[in-house]
Design goal:
Number of helices: 7
Number of strands: 11
Largest sheet: 9 strands, mixed
Strand order of the largest sheet: 3-2-1-4-5-6-10-8-11
Structural class: alpha/beta
Helix content: 25-40%
Shape: globular
Strand content: 15-25%
């Protein structure tokens, strides 16, 4: 499987690229900064410089040739403005979807966030509220598209070692999840087309990942 990952230098993306390479898949990471290329190569991925805030759909689609799936794992990141939450967390996700359709790539995974179902509560920090709205808009943009999309909403992210056991369901409740386990769940979702059209929340739990994926398809 050839998988193109937007936000290729992110923590989850690097773990995912290493995992995919380890099982024999080809991972391609889209990055904005060419200085990040060596880190991707060390993770077993092929780096491609493509700034999703400034590229157009034709340019992005050209990087998706022969891909079997795309994953949007990018984000404006800590310290970014409310405006960049919209241009990256929403706009770049939509651009990747447009490019996937143009390139004939049907499978699309979106890494979203918990807490986007309801409008931000009064008094919420403006930048955090913008982030939640952007993630929600990115999810809604996928609805009705001719894509086999799956939205994954992880809980509070940690750098703990993976456990291989999770809770994966439509409403998982508050909880934490290691970035490594998120990466492994993303890889497992790639292998299960019956998860297309679903929005799933993910936290740590008692269920082996393979069993958790199987449970949400039945």
């Amino acid at each position: 499987m050839r998988v193109v990952i937007a936000g290729g230098h992110g923590k989850i993306a690097l773990l995912l690229q290493r995992h995919l390479a380890g099982r024999g898949d080809t991972a391609v990471g889209l990055i904005r900064n060419p200085e990040q290329a060596a880190t991707l190569r060390a993770a077993g991925a092929t780096p491609v410089v493509c700034d999703l805030e400034h590229a157009d759909v034709t340019q992005v689609a050209a990087h998706l040739d022969d891909a079997d799936a795309v994953i949007f794992a990018a984000g404006a990141g800590p310290g970014s403005s409310a405006a960049r939450k919209d241009t990256v967390d929403r706009g770049a996700a939509a651009l990747l979807a447009d490019a996937a359709i143009r390139a004939g790539v049907h499978r699309y995974l979106l890494v979203s966030s918990m807490g986007v179902d309801d409008p931000p509560a009064a008094g919420t920090d403006d930048v955090w509220a913008a982030y939640l709205r952007a993630k929600r808009a990115a999810e809604e943009d996928l609805h009705g598209r001719d894509l086999a999309w799956t939205v994954l909403r992880p809980g509070r992210l940690t750098d703990d070692e993976p456990t291989g056991r999770v809770t994966l369901t439509r409403h998982a409740g508050n909880g934490a999840i290691s970035r490594a386990d998120v990466a492994h769940v993303l890889a497992a979702l790639l292998d299960e087309p019956r998860t297309a059209g679903t929005t799933l929340e993910l936290v740590g739990g008692p269920t082996p990942i393979a069993d958790a994926i199987q449970a949400v398809t039945t």
